[in-house]
Each structure stands twice: as C-alpha cells, then as structure tokens.
Amino acid sequence: MTSNLGSEDAGKYPADLMGQLGQGERIQFFSYLATKGGCLGMGGTSSRYWIAMTDRRIIYSAMVQDQNKTINRDGMVPFPKVSHVEVAEVKQGGCMSSKSYLLKIGASGGEVHIPITTREKGLEVRNAYARLAHSGA
User: Fold this and answer.
1) Which end of the chain has fewer CB atoms at under 10 Å, N or C?
2) Separation of alpha carbons 131 and 137, rounded Å
C-alpha cells in the first residue's frame, strides 16, 4: 500500500509507527508481515509485525534473525545508509525441510535479516524501495 499520510489515514497504520514519524515525514509504503506457524514462525499475518518506508527511511517492527536465533526487533535504516535490499531463499532442515525467505536490508552498520513467507512479499518490499530510492522520495 502506498500512501501520503493525511489525518484521515492515521487509523490505517500501527500507533507505534505513527509515534516514530518526524515532522513532515510521510509514509510511502506499508505492509504487514506474516509471522505465525511454520519453521520460522511464519504463516498468516500479525498486526504486531510490519515494514514501512517513508520519504526518509525504512522502519520495521519484525521478527529478525540475529546470530542464528529469531528475536523481536524494532528498527529503522535511513535511506542514505541503505546499501541494498534483497530477497534470499533459505532451506530449512528438519521441520518438514521447508523453503522460506529472508528480506535482507544492508546498511553501513551491517545487515538486517527479516524472515518472510514468500518471495513475492520480499520482491514487493524490494521494488518499493527501488522506486522510492530512484524517485528521491
């Protein structure tokens, strides 16, 4: 969903996202992330986990992979610090040997790995970033 935030749109987004916006900052992309069931705790959507892009940065509240464990994390990466956004396939042993995906957001301080259920969701986020980065958001 792409949106320029107006007062009528405020109810569409989580309160914790709204509280992080700076003066004049506008939401350009928003999506809930799947987080229940499956090998990586996936399958279904949750209003607790989401990713957004404003005209200035990527903001997320998600389950992220950190040193081989999955933890809850809220974070943000300013657009000037983003080096890449990519989708990677992950093969899971055990747990029915399933295939899952990671959204990888590279920045000057490292890389954020957000488990996602489908390649299509990762491509949706990556394409939104590419569109905003090239337009100068």
Assistant:
1) N
2) 8
3 backbone φψ class: left, alpha, beta (φ>0; ψ -120 to 50):
beta
Q: What is the 3-state secondary structure (H, E, C) of the chain?
A: CCCCCCHHHHHHCCHHHHCCCCCCCCEEEEEEEECCCCCCCCCCEEEEEEEEEECCEEEEEEEEEECCEEEEEEEEEEHHHEEEEEEEEEECCCHHHCEEEEEEEEECCEEEEEEECCHHHHHHHHHHHHHHHHHCC
Q: Can you tell me the distance from the alpha carbon of 136 to that of 124, in angstroms, rounded to the nearest whole number?
A: 18
Q: Could you tell me which residues come within 8 angstroms of residue 112 by beta carbon, excluding any fewer than 6 positions away?
A: 60, 64, 75, 77, 104, 105
pTM reported for the whole predicted model:
0.78
Hey, what are 115's tokens? 């488990």
What's the pLDDT tens digit per position in 50-108?
999 999 999 999 888 777 777 888 999 999 999 999 999 987 655 555 678 899 999 98
What amino acid is encoded at 132 in this protein? Answer: L
